[in-house]
TrEMBL record:
Belongs to the ABC transporter superfamily. It comes from the Bacteria. Signal peptide: none annotated. The lineage of its organism: Bacteria, Bacillati, Bacillota, Bacilli, Bacillales. SUPFAM superfamilies: P-loop containing nucleoside triphosphate hydrolases (SSF52540). Gene3D superfamilies: P-loop containing nucleotide triphosphate hydrolases. Pfam families: ABC_tran. It comes from Metabacillus arenae. Keywords: ATP-binding, Nucleotide-binding, Transport. Residues 7-234 form the ABC transporter domain. The keyword Transport applies. This is ABC transporter ATP-binding protein. One of its GO terms (molecular function) is ATP hydrolysis activity.
């Protein structure tokens, strides 16, 4: 797979008055990736996406798409990008096909391409029904079909599954997964839902209060995940002191001791404590779930 960088931001920043909504964000998205842009509501995802699409000017920093900036290359860039940002508006009394046809005339793309995009989003059968009869999930897929009409190399989807039921979410997920492999399309998808991103993304960026908290692969996110040992013991302060003598740094929280980055087995820690007269009622080694890591990174404000 080629490693061409399609999206690159450098110190990307947006201020609205005193408020900093996007705070020095450095993003890189390479060809073939499904990049999950994750963050709780209000984290700065849409503002970032608007700047990536040239819809909003950064206060500071810059954006390069396909290695070009918007200054002299706006049309060139936008010709190669498809986007679905916020709920698309349609002619409700026209069919899905007719809506696509209107856009295809503006873009100057062939009728054959309409059939292709309908096939990709699995709306071929419903193509000749009026949009007002479509479910929300079908409308979102029609929005993706519209974004795909111009055969983009990069597809940007801002919270495409918002408001959809589980089967609608499933359809969108299946559709997105196929795009890089089957059609060579690189995808940026934003969401506040970790579980959803975990199922489709190859790479993730986690944003909170405008700051990028993590940028890398899902494995990398899990890889940061070291076991934590939890201990319940009769005399917390003394046990903490004793463990420090054993070169184990424990934190006291909620009537328990927590030790991070432990190299020795929990059974050996337990034994040391018991031999030295401590009454241990609970000792366990835990690995954080991806959800816990996400919640830690986003200050436990993430709506999951
Ligand atoms: N045009 C604007 N004027 C003032 N503040 C804005 C504007 N657009 C966004 N903001 C603020 O910037 C912050 C980030 O908003 P943004 O919409 O980018 O977040 P988000 O991560 O996309 O969240 P959501 O999932 O709720 O859309 C919010 O506090 C929002 O109120």
């Amino acid at each position: 797979m080629s490693s061409e960088v399609l999206v690159s931001t450098n110190g990307l920043t947006k201020r609205f008055g005193d408020q900093i909504s996007v705070d020095h964000v450095d993003l890189q998205i390479k060809q073939g990736q499904i990049f999950g842009f994750l963050g709780p509501n209000g984290a700065g995802k849409t503002t970032t996406i608007r700047m990536l699409l040239g819809l909003m000017k950064p206060t500071e920093g810059d954006v390069q798409i396909f290695g070009k900036s918007f200054d002299n290359n706006r049309i060139d860039i936008l010709r190669r990008v498809g986007a679905l940002v916020e709920a698309p508006s349609y002619y409700r009394n026209l069919t899905g096909y007719e809506n696509l046809k209107l856009s295809s005339e503006i873009l100057g793309v062939s009728k054959q391409r309409i059939d292709e995009v309908l096939e990709i989003v699995r709306l071929t059968e419903a193509a000749h029904r009026q949009v007002k009869q479509y479910s929300l999930g079908m409308k979102q897929r029609l929005g993706i079909a519209l974004a795909l009409l111009g055969s983009p190399e990069l597809l940007i989807l801002d919270e495409p599954t918002n408001g959809l039921d589980p089967s609608g979410i499933h359809e969108i997920r299946q559709l997105i997964k196929r795009l890089p492999q089957d059609f060579g399309i690189t995808v940026l998808i934003s969401s506040h839902n970790l579980a959803e991103i975990e199922m489709v993304a190859t790479h993730v960026g986690i944003i909170q209060s405008g700051k990028l908290k993590f940028h890398g692969t899902l494995e990398g996110l899990r890889g940061d995940n070291k076991p934590i040992v939890e201990i319940k013991v009769n005399n917390l302060a003394k046990a903490k002191e004793f463990l420090a003598q054993q070169k184990l740094h424990a934190e006291v929280k909620d009537d328990m001791l927590f030790i991070e980055d432990v190299k020795e087995p929990v059974s050996s820690i337990n034994k040391k404590l018991v031999i030295n007269g401590f009454e241990v009622s609970h000792v366990v080694s835990k690995v954080q779930t991806l959800e816990e890591i996400f919640l830690d990174l986003t200050g436990r404000e993430g709506a999951l």
